[in-house]
Amino acid sequence: MYEESTKMANKAVELLKDKKAKDIRLLDIHEISTLSDYFIITTGTSTTQVQAMADELEEKMQREGHKLYHKEGFRGGRWILMDFNNVVIHLFHSDEREFYNLERIWVDAKDIPVHNEE
Questions:
Q1: 49-96 pLDDT, tens digit each
Q2: Domain total for the chain?
Q3: Where would I find the H helices in the chain?
């Protein structure tokens, strides 16, 4: 199951890179939480980009057979949460990401290196 979660998380990271997501963080939380195996946290430069990332993820992840269990925040486009069960994705507008600072909350998570293109 964890191996499948890893493949799913890596696929999501690649899709986010294709949509020009900024500062992608992949956090392995499976040893410290029962919520999920991975959190992905990333930033878009506008609400339109954040929504486009969510649309792309939803379409392509489901095409790969990954069920989206819950999505919230799409209408506002400032913080969209997408729950694929074993992978939870947080898509932030830059102001909200700085304010909520999820990386600080999950400081004990294993931070998996992601090559971010700038």
A1: 999 999 999 999 999 999 999 999 999 999 999 999 999 999 999 889
A2: 1
A3: 2-18, 47-63, 94-100, 102-105
Whether pTM > 0.85 for this model: the answer is yes
CATH of the domain at 64: 3.30.460.10
Which pLDDT tens digit goes with each residue over 2-17?
Answer: 899 999 999 999 999 9
Residue 67 neighbours by CB under 8 Å, 6+ apart: 84, 85
Name 83's bridge partners: 70, 88
Side-chain-side CA neighbours of residue 58 (13 Å):
17
Give me the domain span that covers residue 65: 2-112
3 burial class (0-12, 13-18, 19+ CB within 10 angstroms)?
exposed
Distance separating alpha carbons of residues 41 and 13, to the nearest angstrom: 10
